[in-house]
Amino acid sequence: SAIYELSCEAYKHLGKTSNYYWIDPDGSGALGPLRVYCNMTEDKVWTTVYHDLPMQTSVGGNSPEKLSVLQLNYSATMDQISAITSSAEYCEQFISYSCKMSRLLNTPEGNPYTWWVGKANEKHYYWGGSGPGIQKCACGIERNCTDPKYYCNCDADYKQWRKDTGMLSYKEHLPVSQVVVGDLDRPGSEAKVSVGPVRCQGDRNYWNAASFVTSSSYLHFSTFQGETSADISFYFKTSASDGVFLENLGNTDFIKLELKSATEVSFSFDVGNGPVEIVVRSPNPLNDDQWHRVNAERNVKQASLQVDQLPLEVRKAPTEGHTRLELYSQLYVGAAGGQRGFLGCIRSLRMNGVTLDLEERAKVTPGVKPGCSGHCTSYGMYCANGGKCVEKYNGYSCDCSKTAYDGPFCIKDVGAYFEEGIWLRYNFHSPGTSVKDLVSRTLLSSADPEITAPDLSLNKEELSFSFSTTKSPCVLLYVSSYTPDFMAVLVKPNGNLQIRYNLGGTKEPYNIDIDHRNMANGQPHTVNVTRNGRDIVLQLDHYPPTSYSLPATSDIQFNSPKALFLGKVIEIGKIDQDIYKYSTPGFTGCLSRVQFNQIAPLKAALRPTNVSSHVHIQGELVESNCGASPLTIPPMSAATDPWHLDSASAGFPYNGQAIGDGVNRNSAIIGGVIAVVIFTILCTLVFLIRYMFRHKGTYHTNEAKGAESAESADAAIMNNDPNFTETIDESKKEWLI
Asked: Which is nearest to 90 in space by CA: 208, 203, 206, 207?
């Protein structure tokens, strides 16, 4: 059977992005796995479970029956949802009642007409935005109801539509399983009910950890009740080569898990037929101060042990003999009965589906500390693009401040759309400070500290960004200086890219031209330029890097850099003629994740940081990821997820992910038909054109060079054949005659 993670939090720490996942909140317990949506875009993960009640479900309209009961069926059982809510830090569920002459809670004094049923079939008489025991709606708490005599907008009993909405966030009462609507028996009474999905945030179990400081330290818990089945799982992290993880004794029966050596984990027990031991041997040491996961199970048929992704070791139980594990002592986690205890960290210890609160117990136990440090050794690699891993008491986070990226793992491009005439200047020295401004010096120099020369000239630069545009010529990026030195990335009138360096010592600036590739084709392109002294390496999109060298006479110092421009070059003093020409009227298109050494000018403009004072923007800069390189496009959104069409209800506006509904099937079918028709027409056209080309003798059959690395055959021809566009134009002329 597939092993699913216990929660969305666990998937996040495998470096996964937002999507649907199967989770199994109680391991191999009775609950079984369920499918949830995990939203990883914030520091804490959101877990969402959907139901089938459509938004704005109408009730009433002169219905004879006194009560209308709306039933919500979830894509999970109530017990499964309880497992999620109980381990979460916070949960919420949106609820809304739109009314026309239909009272809701009958405030201020009466018995409520409408209520909802939550966990364990309990009735609740409070509404969204309010709390348990308070018979009020959100407007009653905020004192802004349409009629101040009532505590709900609907209780005023108006003939016009009104509504009461809000979040239910007392997680012990969630999820909503029924809404019972009462005030519908008068002529003209109508109501509409909406209930959002259950959303939970944070996972108190996943990071629940304790550090064992001495080999005699232990935590004790009440006797483990695992007579016929035991399921134990936990993570450990250590630099010691052996130690007992946990043990529980009976008269002769026992169960025990230990690290036997740096490469062996052992699971042993005795149910009365003599001791049994299962050992997993790892090819690599397990005392490498990284997190490792242990899963041990025992039932009347067999026992098994798994460590990380290593093969599962299984031992069948004898057909005859005892099957019950009878234990009496307390459960010891760590050193037990004079044995050498485990040194290091244990976290997320679950026994038969219940997480033991190691943290609370550790607070009152000498030799054991609550929580754990050093998560970055295991998870630091998920902080991408130069993001720094930061230790937290319960987990870690990625610090993206020195990168041009954003998001929990620093993989979200920060970019903007530039309209013609909009420009941005990043001053390397903040206003009113000397050239020896320290912040800029450290940021401007590449990672090596020794480059901070007093007058701040650069021997090396690292520049990377992505862009998309359809207008050429233009200046994508320009770095000016207090001297004639400059650096620029341009798109020439024919759409080819040019890198231009002027460091002095040469009559003309040094140009690197990338011919035969039209970069102004509206597609996102990635540019990486690294200069170290005389050597320049350029990488474009997914093509292999190419090396260039500055002329022998050229200076290799970029003297006194002053500012970086995006969109347009507005610099005083003498400026290169081409730059001036190409820079007017300005760049139109998208720029994304611009980074010059350790400076991210676009991000500084769009996200307030300590360097935002260096940025000056002219015009309205609109954040957009239209220039993002295709590699960072997230996986299939929930809207296009085929799984959701059959069981989910309509999209919820506050969920951030629209979920498809059956309603859209007709339009999908119509769309499909149209697509087929268009496809047929296109095929016919292609056939005709090829036929005509064959007769005109202009049908090129020479293979495009470098076709392997192009994304498609068309791209290969366009990228490599400068005559491609002319070919079409020629043939067009011939048809016109």
From this structure: 203
Nearest to residue 360, comparing CAs of 246, 235, 213, 209?
209
The reply to whether omega before 108 is within 30° of 0 (cis) is yes
What is the predicted pLDDT for the residue at 187? 80
Number of folded domains in the chain?
A: 3
On whether both 196 and 226 belong to a single domain, the answer is: no
The answer to whether residues 315 and 365 belong to one domain is yes
Instruction: Give me the half-sphere count of Cα atoms (radius 13 Å) on the Cβ side of residue 406.
Output: 20
In a domain, residue 698? The reply is no
What is the end-to-end Cα distance of the chain in Å, rounded?
70
CA separation for the pair 537, 547 (Å, rounded): 4
Last residue of a domain, one of 595, 623, 651: 623
Compute the CA torsion angle 70, 74, 78, 82 (nearest 10 deg): -120
Q: pLDDT-derived band of residue 6, with 50, 70 and 90 as boundaries?
A: confident
- Side chain identity, residue 481: S
pLDDT at 729 (0 to 100)? 43
List the alpha helices (DSSP H) in 566-701.
577-582, 601-606, 644-647, 665-696
Residue keyed to tokens 């008269």: 251
Q: Does 561 share its domain with 421?
A: yes
Q: Which of 18, 26, 32 is nearest to 76 (CA)?
A: 32
Same domain, 477 and 617: yes
> In residues, how long is the chain?
737
| Cα separation, 37 vs 652, whole angstroms | 13
Query: Residues 402, 408, 412, 416: what is their CA dihedral angle, to the nearest 10 degrees?
Result: -70
Count Cα neighbours of 351 within 13 Å in the Cβ-side half-sphere. 19
Residue linked to tokens 């954040």: 623
Q: Is the pLDDT of residue 657 over 60?
A: no
- What is the CATH number for 76? 2.60.120.1000
3-state secondary structure of 253: coil
Alpha helices in 318-396 (DSSP H): 358-363, 376-379
CA distance 476 to 424: 11
Domain around 76: 49-204
Contact present, 514 and 540 (Cβ < 8 Å)? yes
d(CA 498, CA 536): 13
Distance (Å, rounded) from C-alpha 38 to C-alpha 13?
Answer: 12
Instruction: Determine the pLDDT at residue 656.
Output: 36
Could you tell me if residue 40 is inside a domain?
no
Whether residue 282 is found in the same domain as residue 146: no
> Which tokens hold the place of 391?
């230790």
Backbone dihedral angles phi then psi of residue 10, each to the nearest 5 degrees: -65, -40
Q: What angle do CA 727, 731, 734 make, to 5 degrees?
A: 145
* Contact between residue 414 and residue 406 where contact means Cβ atoms under 8 Å apart: yes
The token duo for 420 is 């013609």
Count Cβ atoms below 10 Å from residue 663 Cβ, excluding itself.
10
Distance CA 513, CA 640 (A): 41
As a whole number of angstroms, the distance between CA 12 and CA 719 comes to: 39
Whether the pTM exceeds 0.85: the reply is no
Domain CATH code at residue 420: 2.60.120.200
Q: What is the pLDDT of residues 507-546, one digit of tens each?
A: 888 888 887 788 888 889 999 999 988 899 999 888 888 9
3-state SS assignment for residue 105: coil
